[in-house]
Amino acid sequence: MNIGVLGTGTVGRTIAARLVELGHSVIIGTRDPAKTLARTESDGMGNPPPSVWLEQNPKVKLGSFAEAAAHGEMVVNATNGDGSLDALKAASEANLNGKILIDIANPLDGSKGMPPSLFVSNTDSLGEQIQRAFPDVKVVKALNTMNAHLMANPQLLANGDHTVFMSGNEVAAKAAVSELLRTFGWEDIIDLGAITTARGPEMYLPIWLRLWGALQTSLFQVKVVRKAGN
Amino acid sequence: MNIGVLGTGTVGRTIAARLVELGHSVIIGTRDPAKTLARTESDGMGNPPPSVWLEQNPKVKLGSFAEAAAHGEMVVNATNGDGSLDALKAASEANLNGKILIDIANPLDGSKGMPPSLFVSNTDSLGEQIQRAFPDVKVVKALNTMNAHLMANPQLLANGDHTVFMSGNEVAAKAAVSELLRTFGWEDIIDLGAITTARGPEMYLPIWLRLWGALQTSLFQVKVVRKAGN
Question: How many domains does the structure of chain B reveal?
Fold first, then answer.
């Protein structure tokens, strides 16, 4: 499938690399490709600059947000939460309408101390903000509750025996996302309901961040334990 | 041990019954014991009125919030979140200071539609509000992330192979709570850190509520899956 991935950070790179590994054609989108390619510094977490990463991952093509969105039959929002609406506007309704948008972004706000708080929560969510701003896009919130390596390859931990959540208004869109997630290795996929339920997985981030601190690793996940049939 | 349980709802009853089963001496506290005893209606979820429940659980004594707190070497806050600070004021600093308070309450706000939102979150929590209001009480947030039957008896599900969280400022207090939780059957207890980390388990409630809806049962839990040593 042709897929556009918006965002060249760790999440965007990890998802893009997994998608090309699975045989998809991927353009990874950024605001200004020339500026992105000109960057020479690593990101402070040891990740190489985009130009080096693209050399290491030659099947992934770099483009603008609009080029990535136009390329995709399905589009992945892997931008920072505070830049997601702007990135999607740059991608443009014309390139997004009618398509499934897998929204992985979290509304993290680092301005009020660490660990980050959320800039939208409780009676709204980033997933809902995106759905309201792009009413003709099929927004499916998913994968925002774990580290990037586990998103793309859940089998890295406990043979994949842990849980991913989905929220979205359209059942067929969630079924398509579910099918893609299964090719990543996901087996336990819980459909929480409409896009309003994205409040749940987004508000899970505060405990995820504190578990990261307590466990001293981000390579952990939650399994929703329940009786057979639930 | 002598333990005071504040709140005669499902959580207070279930914890009180489990504590007497384990050999503790328990007073369950309410605002106005005479009024509580005079109630004849069930609570709309099929639970009998307090007088009937007390007859069924003769080892549990009913008292005022102050009597329950005075009785306890350890005190459990099982009141509704929106009534917790008032209940604790009625229990009084004199009866609480120096003691461990296990805070199970959630700051649920049903006034903005269902499922409930939270009346405090993100940059503060109910656990922190209680700790600030009662600086000489050793507040330990715990057990607020699951249904009452699983709190009191985790072995009811998956042989107890799921996770409970603790937040609190004092290591010795958390060790004492951990010891009590082990007698309930808890094996996987994660210390998230200081009471500020209560924001995590309280903000977990929105996904818990939506999982309840999606799974059509509240008899589920999360297991934090990680590698050995984390």
Answer: 1
